[in-house]
């Protein structure tokens, strides 16, 4: 199961840590079970190795160890450049982690999970230890992402199955305290379904906005230009340029290296990870370090938080040779709203 989780998301590989700890705690006196553990680890390796080899051949990295090791390397490089970076990482990671943990509880888990966390520490056994360790380990990738100010709840989705287990502890208490158990059960389920419908409807995306965006980008996507990024009203609008460029492709699907290069460019927010490009000579994906340094400097200049007036904003646009402005009724910058 851990191997299959890791194939879907590399964070699943971290589940080896809590499972191994609980295994050795529970069977520490039974040496024969060590053979079972070695066999299980061997099966995990046999499942992951072909996928790691395939990814390494196609994209230049295995997608498992390469992703996990990237975090410490990033921290190390940032701390060398800025001595106060470590404190900033800890502060941002902690604040954002607590904030997004609260957000993903809405609407279904907001009542049941907090009570479940309290109840799980009563009468601790190896099963509850497994749940607690799994939560702590799965929070590590989320903390890393939030310490880099990546504003996304996807890092916590892996915890949803565990949240369901924690909610069951609360359900059990409710059902034990009241006599009319069926009524309480139906009320809980009905409340969850109703609140979920209301929440989904409230947070539903503006399909009309995205349809209009794609239509407009298809029309202007054939012209060479460099645009601003303030159109990012709902998130992801500018990526439609890549999809619009596929309209002239004769055959689909195609390999990533065969995708036509979009004629429209913009200044990305974060390019520290680098964008690999296909090298025909080595048949591998390479990162141009010189180009990466230029993009990092452009990103820092464009997204400078000290820019608080239109004069400085237009000066940056001119300096980065931005030729066209893309604006909507609502934009993600207070300067042009």
UniProtKB/TrEMBL annotation:
Record has Transmembrane as a keyword: yes
Chain ranges passing through the membrane: 6-27, 34-54, 100-121, 128-146, 158-175, 182-202
Keywords associated with the record: Membrane, Transmembrane, Transmembrane helix
Parts forming coiled coils: none
This protein's name: Glycosyltransferase RgtA/B/C/D-like domain-containing protein
């Amino acid at each position: 199961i851990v191997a299959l989780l890791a194939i879907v998301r590399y964070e699943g590989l971290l589940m080896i840590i809590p499972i191994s700890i609980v295994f050795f705690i529970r069977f520490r006196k039974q040496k024969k079970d060590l053979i079972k553990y070695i066999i299980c680890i061997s099966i995990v390796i046999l499942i992951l190795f072909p996928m790691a080899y395939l990814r390494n051949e196609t994209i230049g990295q295995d997608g498992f160890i390469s992703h996990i090791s990237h975090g410490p390397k990033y921290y190390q490089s940032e701390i060398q450049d800025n001595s106060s970076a470590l404190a900033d990482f800890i502060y941002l990671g902690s604040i954002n982690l607590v904030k997004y943990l609260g957000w993903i509880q809405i609407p279904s888990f907001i009542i049941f999970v907090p009570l479940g966390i309290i109840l799980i520490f009563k009468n601790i056994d190896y099963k509850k230890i497994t749940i607690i360790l799994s939560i702590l380990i799965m929070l590590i990738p989320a903390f890393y992402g939030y310490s880099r100010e990546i504003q996304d709840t996807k890092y916590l989705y892996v915890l949803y199955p565990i949240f369901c287990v924690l909610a069951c502890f609360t359900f059990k208490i409710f059902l034990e305290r009241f006599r009319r158990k069926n009524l309480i059960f139906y009320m809980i389920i009905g409340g969850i379904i109703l609140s979920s419908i209301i929440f989904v409807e409230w947070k539903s995306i503006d399909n009309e906005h995205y349809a209009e965006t794609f239509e407009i980008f298809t029309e202007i996507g054939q012209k060479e230009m460099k645009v601003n990024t303030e159109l990012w009203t709902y998130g992801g609008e500018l990526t439609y340029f890549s999809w619009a460029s596929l309209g002239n492709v004769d055959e689909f699907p195609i390999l990533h290296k065969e995708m036509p290069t979009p004629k429209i460019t913009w200044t990305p927010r974060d390019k520290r990870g680098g964008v690999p490009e296909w090298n025909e000579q080595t048949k591998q994906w390479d990162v141009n370090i010189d180009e990466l340094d230029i993009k990092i400097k452009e990103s820092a200049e464009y997204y400078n938080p000290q820019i608080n007036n239109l004069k400085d904003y237009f000066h940056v646009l001119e300096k980065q040779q931005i030729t066209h402005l893309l604006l909507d009724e609502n934009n993600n910058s207070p300067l042009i709203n």
